[in-house]
Specification:
Blueprint (H helix, E strand, L loop, with lengths): L1 H22 L2 E6 L1 H4 L9 H11 L5 E4 L7 H15 L3 E5 L2 H5 L4 H17 L3 E5 L9 H18 L2 E3 L25 H25 L1
């Protein structure tokens, strides 16, 4: 009887430890219109759908969505300290750069801003993921390649986690895009939710494994 009780206590302790590791996962999402739910109802937007999935699955991960339509990297730099101080996230996901690229911002400036966003987040104790944004081909192959390569460079220089772009397969399908051919429609949102559920899980698991190895 005593042995059974002891076994039960050990299982309960292990369960609580597992729960605690997830309970600390508070993700601050810094993004633009793609994450702000532009053109769809908020209840249809992928961030809202993903948060609901975490709730339904009893996974205590909280997403704090600060995405703003039209936001550029320099806009975010002006606000990031306040966001980090207010929300105290354990993780920061940066989904930015699309508006910088469309407006033809210099690549060196993009790299500088992304590096600042990552390092400021890290200075506040957050683990950072940088989404590898891609821009439309009409901006020219040279600029487009330099733009995308910037994310790999910043990731390597700052040790941020490089996350694939959730629009890569969606942007080439007109049936999943709004009429502006820039933003995903309501049908695309559950697809993005599932993509991000998998990628965020990979990111969090990667960070836990690295912590364990250390």
């Amino acid at each position: 009887m005593t042995r059974c009780i002891l076994k039960f206590i050990i299982i309960l302790m292990l369960t609580n430890l597992s729960f605690t590791s997830y309970a600390k996962d508070k993700i601050l999402l810094i993004g633009d219109s793609l994450s702000a739910g532009y053109g769809v109802e908020q209840a249809q937007a992928w961030v809202h759908l993903l948060q609901n999935k975490y709730i339904e699955d009893n996974t205590p991960i909280t997403i704090i969505n600060t995405a703003i339509s039209g936001q550029t990297t320099d806009n975010a730099i002006l606000k990031i300290e306040a966001w980090l101080t207010t929300h105290k996230p354990s993780h920061v996901l940066i989904e930015l750069g699309g508006n910088d690229g469309i407006r033809g911002f210099p690549i060196k400036l993009l790299q500088k801003h992304l590096t600042q966003l990552v390092t400021i987040s890290q200075q506040h104790g957050a683990k950072v993921a940088l989404m590898e944004i891609q821009i439309p081909p009409n901006l020219g192959p040279r600029y487009r390649k330099m733009f995308t390569d910037t994310y790999t460079k910043v990731s390597k220089q700052t040790n941020a986690y490089l996350m694939p772009y959730f629009m890569t397969d969606i942007a080439i399908k007109p049936s999943l895009m709004l009429n502006d051919n820039l933003h995903p429609n309501a049908k695309a949102q559950p697809i993005i939710r599932d993509f991000m559920h998998k990628e965020i899980d990979s990111w969090l698991q990667d960070r836990r494994l690295n912590k364990t190895r250390v």
